[in-house]
Amino acid sequence: RIGGLLRRVSECNMRRTVAWPIVSLWAGLTAGALDILAAVVINTLRGSTPMRVLQSVASGLLGQPAFDGGWSTALLGLVLHFAMMLIIAAFFCALASRMAWARRQPLLAGSIYGVAVYAVMNIIVVPLSAFPVKLSYPPSALAIGLLVHIVVIGVPMALIVARLRVPAGSAVLR
User: Fold this and answer.
1) What local confidence, expressed as pLDDT, does residue 18 receive?
2) H-helix segments, the chain
């Protein structure tokens, strides 16, 4: 009985598509949560703290003083992180709205987008920000960074777009 109800709800959801702004919001919030969780876990394993991770995001705007601001600059870092993720998701949704293959092949599209986001963030955004540390990219850090951007940013965004924007009957990985 419950299985039948769930199947009907699922079929109903598959027949309609969700508006792009809502898809973008879901994609940004999901990828944002996964990315900040990954950053906290990875950096905690390296001896940092969640507050320091969030302050490092705020340091892109405030520079070195972000690390002296306690939880207020950590909260600012969290807000900035999600603001950037919402912009990144909106950009992916804009691309996917014009490129049907990205909605039909979300694993490929998400992987490509994850690499692109990593490149833009590390080649353009961070160097132009007030981030106080010069970044280096040893092979292990590069591999982890790329993997995280693919697995927790690009692919989840693409899967959300594929799930919420492809009409029923279309061939897509679900």
Assistant:
1) 86
2) 2-15, 20-45, 50-62, 70-98, 100-104, 106-120, 126-128, 139-148, 155-165
